[in-house]
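Lecture 7 notes: from sequence to structure.
We start with the chain below.
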Amino acid sequence: MAGLHTKGKTYQARASNIEKYSKKRFRPQDQLSNTADPLVELIEHAVRPLPLGDPMPEADFLLLVTEEDSRIENMLHHQPVGMLATQARSPIGIGPICKILCGRCARRYSRARRSNVRCWEIARDLGSRIIEAVEAAGVKTVVTAYAPVGPVATRLAQSRPRLKDAGIALHQIRRDYDSLAWPHTTKGFFALKKKIPQIPRDLGLAG
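Predicted structure tokens for the same chain:
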């Protein structure tokens, strides 16, 4: 098991839990270690406030859809130019299942937007592909879902200076429920759990 929130804490497997959650199919006998040393990262990561999301642009834009949020159109209230891109999430490339899902998502966008939405399998230079697509579409703005960390966030951060030099604005928009929930995820799940009843009310979803 891996605990991602509490530094220095180990989550040790217990035979009783394995038996319970495997519906009594498995109960290890003398197979589990009684001790587990925590893995401690040597780098200290400073606590930072959640950055503000970019505002929605008023001008026409190109929609960049990534695997971070393949339903980003739910956040939009007008028709953008459609485009779908997927990032290489592994140094050995994208597997066949990921390619199939990417193609299905592209076709869904094409039907919904009545435009040709292409599936990209980007490994490195996302900036060049965006610039080409923006020039072909005749717009100067790209909208995509906010990615906090990971391959998509890295590709976007690497592309932003080049897009700026080309006169292209990149807007990373974030869902309201992420903006409300994420500030409570600094000390593990239970701190967020206490806020769950209030979050739907803040979103206007609770009666």
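Points to note: Residues 96-113 form the longest helix (18 residues). Helices lie at 15-21, 96-113, 126-137, 151-165, 176-181, 189-193, 198-202.
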